[in-house]
Amino acid sequence: MDLSVVIVNWNTKNLLLQCLESLCQMVKGTEMEVFVVDNGSTDGSVVAAKAKFPEVTFIQNQTNLGFARANNQALGLAKGKYLLLLNPDTQVKEGAVERLISFMDAHPEAGGAGAQLLNSDGSKQNSIANFPSLATELLNKRLLRWLFPKAYPGKERNYREPIEVDSVIGACMIVRREAIGQVGLLDEDYFLFLEETDWCYRMKKAGWKIYHVPQAQIYHFQGKGVEIEKKRAKVEYHCSRYRFFKKNRGSLQWSILLIGSVIKLIVELFMMGIACLFTFFAVKKWKKRLSIYAYLTWWHLRGCPKGMGLKPIK
Which domains does the chain show, CATH number per domain? Predict the structure, then answer.
């Protein structure tokens, strides 16, 4: 078996069907198995996908178990030489998967690699992620990529050849079975966000390399799976940041991040509030940002309680 594809779905029925259709149409000459792990969807995702793609293996969870735990369910059953994590809000372009496999075949030192993610209009998304640091989390990431392009690679530069990076975005990430055997599965303490970053961090510590392969291109309809729960998703992102720092950066940096995040949020809340007042709350995107900043600030001031993110409380 060349490849095992793992897709974790949560209430993205139409996108999931499009994703599976693109795999069937665009991946050729590759012996492949596909797993769909459904995290308690209520939109008929599984019924629709089973009817159209009976060859796919489905794992149905009664509740939302999170991205890491759901992926691990399928990774434990997968038989492929390589394992591909793929978001349901993606569509693969012709040759993309084959290019990732060919790259991994030609680079035995690669523990994992990621594709170039594209918006629906063909423009590039950020597909590379630096390991979280105080600089990346408290300063402007776009500014860092502009000022220090070698240290902080991103979509602003055109890469003609694969490059070694810290981490890749898990919307499309291929991983070598041997690397997983050495470092283990995804850390299930992450519910959503940064699971793949932590995975890459562990792989690099174990001596593997991580690459961005720009020739492999994937459409990514970014964030559609959490759009309806954007405030709660932002809370989960902050939870994952704090988890990464506690685990990999130590208590001092974690404390600085927490204090710095609160200060940054209060400043952003104040500035966005002023902007909304001056425009009489006429700009919808500014009102949404104000609402998100207020929610995140309130969550922090309450001591970051459970239950305000996407993770269900037992």
Answer: 3-225 (3.90.550.10), 229-301 (no CATH)
